[in-house]
Amino acid sequence: MTDDILTMVIATHNTGKLAEIRNLLKDYPVYLKSLLDFGPIPPVEEDGATFDDNAYKKAAFTARVLGVPALADDSGLVVEALGGEPGIHSARYGGDGLTDIERYTLLLRNMKGQKNRKAAFCCVISIAVPTGPALTYEARCEGRIAESASGENGFGYDPVFFYPPANQTFAEMSISEKSLVSHRGKALKEMQKEFDNVIRWIRQQMPVQEKFKCEGAISC
Ligand code: ITT
Hints:
The model has no long low-confidence stretch (mean pLDDT 93). This protein starts with 5 loop residues before the first strand and ends in a 15-residue tail after the last helix. It is built from six helices and seven strands, in the order βαβαβαββββααα. It has one domain: Maf protein. Strands 2-1-3-4-5-6-7 form a seven-stranded mixed sheet. By secondary structure, the protein is an alpha/beta fold. It has helices at residues 15-24, 51-66, 100-110, 175-181, 183-193, 195-205, and strands at residues 6-10, 30-34, 70-79, 118-128, 134-145, 161-163, 168-169. 30% of the residues lie in helices and 22% in strands.
């Protein structure tokens, strides 16, 4: 590892998201760490009113606590016929402690008989530095809520999110196929377009670590 390569932590506890973000950033000149590379840190309260608020909270808090730049993703499924729900509450839809299968089964039940099945996945990516400032990228992916679950890949609501251009649910697509069109893939693609500037910006914002020569010591 050289000093030239920037270290960034991906601030998520969701292993599905982590796998997608790692896959999307694998060719970037940045050394990616996950929260598992650090000791436990206190949980962030995701009580913001928007995806944007929550993404910033997660990124800024993690960067401040760990002292390294952090990338966080806040995302969710917005269903038109349900007035935008589960939206920012997607991870907790139906209450804490439910599995992904129980959550999307509840969604299918709430959509039973509903003709309007329009839905969109939304994603906000926030990259924050320990002193607070952050960059933000956002994107959506339009689709429909399927009548029943299908597919084994992905995570969360993927088995019930039907993506018409592929004639498949997200869970029937591979991670690379999904990332080409998904909310997360598109948001990270936006970041990629100006990645050199992102790196420059992060370096400018990071506190300079002074190095001292140790007089008389054999090695420091
Ligand atoms: P972190 O906050 O630790 O990142 P989380 O799962 O709690 O993990 P969010 O608060 O952003 O993350 O909630 C996002 C939820 O939206 C996620 O748990 C899924 O249920 C759903 N979701 C987001 N993106 C998805 C995707 O690509 N496929 C399926 N479901 C997705």
